[in-house]
Amino acid sequence: MPDARTIDQFADDIRELHGAKLVRALSLSLKAIAFDSEGSAKDRYMNSGLKRPSSNLYNSIAGSVRTGTAASGGFADIVLSAGGRQPGGKSVRYARIQEEGGTIRPRGKYLAVPNKWDDAIASTLFQGSGQPRYASARDYPDPLSFFPNKGGGNATLRNKDGQVVYFLVRSVTLRGRHFLRDGLRDSSKRVPDLLKRAVRALVVEH
User: Fold this and answer.
1) How far apart (Å, rounded) are the C-alpha atoms in residues 63 and 39?
2) In this structure, which of 9, 107, 173, 193 has its CB flanked by the most CB atoms within 10 Å?
3) For the segment 24-81, what is each residue's pLDDT rounded down to a tens digit?
């Protein structure tokens, strides 16, 4: 339950702190806000229609405190990010486009889109966590045949039974999921309470 202390009471709390105590209170507050922002962004991610929380993108979401420099006037920043290198993992290059949206175009002629609409085929393409089994269509273990587009449809890659395994498209446009932006907005509403709790805890300890 939020602390019902008034602004004047909060000001009295601040005055009771000084030196290292005040620095510690602010440090705890910033870390609490960063942690809360990370949680909010992950909640937004789960409600955005993206993959399960075992995905690399979900695990790359991180809230942190960046220490202020002379160039920034000594202020510290709350940083909410996604796509950075994970412990034991790789950077998630598609994090920005999932957050902001945009159009993906192939380096070659086509983008290969896995056929997730056929359950039997999808089970061979995706793990139980929802992550792709193969980095690209070239890694698919069985032979695939190219079928050109006819009548305005998509070209496809099909297995020996004629089932579509991949759709071949010229581009894919993704809508922005904005899980970082909206998560930070959600968390910002709780900043005053998080600050008061950190400062009050140290006043009581003092």
Assistant:
1) 8
2) 193
3) 767 777 888 889 999 999 999 988 877 666 678 888 899 988 876 555 555 678 889 9
Asked whether the beta carbons of 77 and 60 are under 8 A apart, the reply is no
33 CA to centre of own chain:
17
Please tell me whether the overall predicted TM-score, pTM, comes out greater than 0.70 for this model: no
Residue ranges in the chain whose pLDDT is less than 70: 1-23, 25, 51-54, 68-75, 85-90, 194-195, 197-206
Contacts 24+ apart (CB under 8 A), 6-15: 10/196, 10/199, 13/196, 13/199, 13/200, 13/203, 14/199
> CA 20, 21, 26, 31 torsion: positive or negative?
positive
Give SS3 for 89.
Answer: coil
